[in-house]
Amino acid sequence: MTRYNHLITDENRKWWTLGAMCFALFMIMLDNTVVNVALPSIQKDLGASISGLEWTINGYTLSFAVLLATGGRLGDIFGRRRMFLCGVVIFTLSSATAGFAGDATSLVVSRIVQGVGAALMMPATLSIITNAFPASERGKAMGMWAGVSALALAVGPVLGGFLTEHVSWRAIFYLNIPVAIGAVTAALFAVRESRDTSVGREVDFAGVATLTTGLTALILALVEGNGWGWGSPEIVALLAGAVLGLTAFVAIERRVKVPMVDFSLLSDRNFLGAVVVALIVSFAMLGVFFFLALYMQDVLGYSPLEAGVRFLPSTLMIVGVAPLAGRLSDRYGPRWLIAGGLTVVAASLYSFSGIAVDSGYLDLLPGFMLLGIGIAMTMSPMTSAAMNAVPVQKAGIASGVLSMFRMVGGSLGVAVTGAIFQARVGTSFETASPQQFVDALGFAMTVCAAVALIGALVGAVAIRAKKNNGEHLLTVEAAEANVNPGGSAVAAREAELETV
Fold it and tell me: Measuring CA to CA, which residue among 394, 388, 395 is closest to residue 488?
């Protein structure tokens, strides 16, 4: 199909490319939420245990989060379009096997493999978009990317509830197949191959092994900490293993010829600030979504589908505001959009701290809308700040690191808010009374609001203003443009740093 690429102009190509990446992103993000509402039906049909149901969710999250940085680096080495297509194929085949699963074990294995495919796809979507769009238009493109992500998160619970009630829980996995066909077709038609030409194609196997080990131990500890007990031998061993694995990873990366993660990226204040903001906004967002979903079902008595529908105002705000935030970021810079967005998120979370047992949905609606607006103001400027801070050559690993911080932040948010909840009520949420539930939830939301305010401060202090950032980007692109095809983009990066 690539022989027809000459039929589209460069201007059209970048929008076709964005469309292909958004197709794939929709599929990835949909699978973060669409399965939750189907869990009771899966349990009944497959006879799954509670642990099996938990790993239907956690298996996907774990493999996805752990392999994001690896997926980004493999795209830099072997080609981003190639890794993207490989990820789509893995994701689609594992979706089909999940739909055909005859027992809980087969379903969990399919979900873990789905996470592997998603980890190859997710960094590629950002790096391919970064390569397709000039720096002056990346904010707009990232805004659309973020809007599609939010739309998938919004549609997930509603679509999952509808298919489970009226078709079958298996249909939520079969749905990925036509979406994947559309993504592959568009990618073959429009996306140009790109890679990091500044390094060879050697794979840092020692780095992959230590990072995978360290992150697996960390994410597993965060996921299971509240259930197993934070002082249990298993969690202590996992946290110790995470420290040892990640420490070994850093030591290895400083010595190998071609490291999997270029730590010099973190020397750029925009990139470092953006990844910290990514961790914080995901911490706040997923923590509040998790416990408000429980509140609406366990206290207010909504069904899973009814609860999913009531999240729509928040996520639709993201869909509407994210593209606008991206355009404003292109024009005025990301700093104050990020700081302002996280301040709005903090105000929303603080409003949730006052909910009561007898609160109605109208009491929650302003907070939901503010939450969506604040997240939209933060996410696309944060993404464009990170991706504009690095040379296009390094887009794959940069997007992998950014996505990894988002996933770790989300797992940390659920774990920390859960620990706060249990500490306040002295029991689990399943056995807490409605009053105990809302008291603990209110305190957890106050803590999340404080974390969001810290993120606003990080955004204001760490992210460069528009003028300096623009000069930085122009210098990067000018330096890269002067590198001959056989030359080193590292030299361009050094030249750029000397002039900033």
Answer: 394
Domain-wise residue ranges, the chain? 1-192, 204-259, 264-464
Same fold, 1-192 and 264-464: yes
Report the chain (500 residues): mean pLDDT per 10 consecutive residues.
Answer: 52 78 81 73 77 74 80 82 90 92 88 90 82 76 75 74 81 87 81 71 79 84 78 90 90 79 77 88 77 78 75 79 82 87 93 85 88 87 81 72 79 76 68 81 88 91 62 39 37 33
Q: Which two tokens stand for residue 439?
A: 């008291």
pTM of this structure: 0.70
Q: Determine the length of the chain.
A: 500
Structure tokens at 328: 């404003």
10 Å CB burial of residue 8 (0-12, 13-18, 19+) is middle
Phi/psi of residue 483, nearest 5 degrees = -80, 125
Cβ neighbours of 175 (radius 10 Å): 20
pLDDT at 465: 61
- State the DSSP code for 232: S
How far apart are alpha carbons 227 and 238 in whole angstroms? 14
Instruction: Give the C-alpha separation, 147 to 165, whole Å.
Output: 27
Which tokens belong to 367? 């907070």
Centre a 10 Å sphere on the Cβ of residue 167 and count the other Cβ atoms it contains: 12
Report the candidate in 306, 283, 277 with the shortest Cα–Cα distance to residue 293. Answer: 306
Residue 228 pLDDT: 81
AA identity, residue 334: P
Instruction: Tell which CATH architecture fits domain 1-192.
Output: Up-down Bundle (1.20)
User: What is the pLDDT, as a whole number, of residue 325?
Assistant: 84
Do 452 and 342 meet the contact criterion of CB atoms below 8 Å apart? yes
The closest of 462, 473, 481 to 499, measured between CA atoms, is 473
Q: What is the pLDDT of residue 493?
A: 34
Report yes or no: 338 and 381 within 8 Å, Cβ to Cβ.
yes
Residues 6+ apart with CB under 8 A from 487: none
Give dist(CA 439, CA 426) in Å, integer.
Answer: 12
Which residues lie closer than 8 Å to 207 by C-beta, 6 or more apart? 249, 252, 253, 256, 259, 260, 261
pLDDT recorded at residue 332: 83
pLDDT number for residue 423: 74
Residues 400/73, Cβ–Cβ less than 8 Å:
yes
CA proximity to 127, closest of 401, 489, 321: 401
User: What span, in angstroms and rounded, lies between the C-alpha atoms of 118 and 71?
Assistant: 9
Distance, CA of 478 to CA of 470 (rounded, Å): 12
Q: Any idea which architecture 264-464 has in CATH? A: Up-down Bundle (1.20)
91 contacts 180 by C-beta, under 8 angstroms:
yes
